[in-house]
Predict the structure of Carbonic anhydrase.
Amino acid sequence: MPHLPDHLLAGYRNFMNGRYLTESGRYRELAREGQAPETMIVACCDSRAAPEAIFDAGPGELFVLRNVGNLVPPYAPDGEFHSTSAALEFAVQSLKVKNIVVMGHGRCGGIRAALDPNAAPLSPGDFIGKWMSLIAPAAETVSSSTFMTAAERQTALERISIRYSIANLRTFPCVSILEGKGRLSLHGAWFDISTGELWVMNKETGDFERPVLE
């Protein structure tokens, strides 16, 4: 029995003979001097929406946090375990990132679960259900709309949840203070898996728009 699945070992072999070979100097520099990414991405765990691939990022360029539904909880210094808040604290306070991007995506399973009031827990702990309850008020409002199709409700909540997470980011003192000083910018984006299109949130209106690419 191999210690890793064969396809992972094959991928690692390709990495060593390809990307690492051409960027070995960059990796050695990062090992020696540490990381200094300017941008943090809060993205979903979904294997189809990898930020490093979408933004064609090299090693050390992005500090990526991934969780179910790309959610940011509100600031809650209650002594409990908060992995998302810990990553945010490290990115802002230690790495001193200049940008935080909350990136949602189409066909998100977590969002679909939030929209289904009859969804059965995957385990007795119902960790997903508890986590997605962060956007329960929005999910209830969207679910009650009979003027939208199921697909439209899904896309609507995917985008609304991004605005929710950005609002929650501002409940963290370290974020709100730095944003107020102009040293930190918050952004929203939504990626369509089926078409590869990236929609960017307009900071003034909250609408999602397709950027003009040169």
